[in-house]
């Protein structure tokens, strides 16, 4: 086993000293998943920013809409995070995508090459625009949104897609900046049925 990496290049707050609301949230996340994702620990030293980060994350990711299921939202995160070379987000959200999609292979296929991943035409169009927004935002044009509308995305779906890509562009950069490593637990989640 390799030596554990530090959770962040920056100070990691003592969990016992966190404000009650964050400590309760972190305890609930750890109880549900069996571990505390490193991003929670890394962001804890700035409680107001941690609260805002997780509130924005939840508003974007914890819903299903006609054009973007929770699983598809996670697949978008995997594709765009891979395009941004963010190991933490690819591994962490790959695990969530495997669980939500009930597919142990899809996240890895998307991370390596979303163009060849076994997704339908609608999701292929979504990923094409999402990855372009993540890597070359000025190249996204009105025709791209029209294409997505043609695949059944609503105006709310379009907004969500842009907001998810933008939010995770920030998250990718924070993970790079702080050198947040993926938790070892993420590598196995969703790969084999729970026993």
UniProtKB/TrEMBL annotation:
Annotated Carboxymuconolactone decarboxylase-like domain ranges read: 47-101
The protein in question is named Uncharacterized peroxidase-related enzyme
Any one GO molecular-function label of the UniProt entry: peroxiredoxin activity
Record field: transmembrane: none
Q: Which Gene3D superfamilies match?
A: AhpD-like
User: Which SUPFAM superfamilies does the record associate with it?
Assistant: AhpD-like
A Pfam family: CMD
Highest taxon in the source lineage = Bacteria
The UniProt keyword set, sorted, is:
Oxidoreductase, Peroxidase
């Amino acid at each position: 086993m390799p030596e554990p990496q530090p959770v962040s290049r920056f100070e990691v707050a003592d969990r016992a000293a966190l404000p009650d609301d964050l400590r309760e949230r972190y305890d609930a996340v750890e109880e549900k998943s069996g571990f505390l994702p490193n991003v929670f620990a890394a962001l804890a030293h700035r409680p107001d920013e941690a609260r805002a980060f997780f509130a924005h994350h939840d508003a974007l990711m914890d819903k299903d809409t006609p054009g973007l299921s929770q699983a598809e939202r996670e697949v978008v995160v995997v594709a765009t995070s891979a395009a941004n070379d963010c190991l933490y987000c690819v591994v962490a959200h790959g695990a969530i995508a495997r669980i939500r999609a009930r597919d142990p292979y899809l996240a890895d296929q998307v991370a390596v090459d979303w163009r060849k991943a076994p997704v339908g035409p609608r999701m292929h169009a979504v990923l094409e625009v999402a990855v372009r927004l993540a890597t070359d935002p000025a190249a996204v044009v009105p025709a791209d949104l029209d294409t997505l509308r043609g695949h059944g995305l609503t105006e709310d779906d379009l907004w969500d897609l842009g907001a998810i890509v933008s939010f995770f562009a920030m998250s990718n950069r924070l993970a790079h900046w702080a050198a947040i490593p993926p938790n070892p637990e993420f590598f196995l989640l969703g790969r084999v049925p729970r026993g």
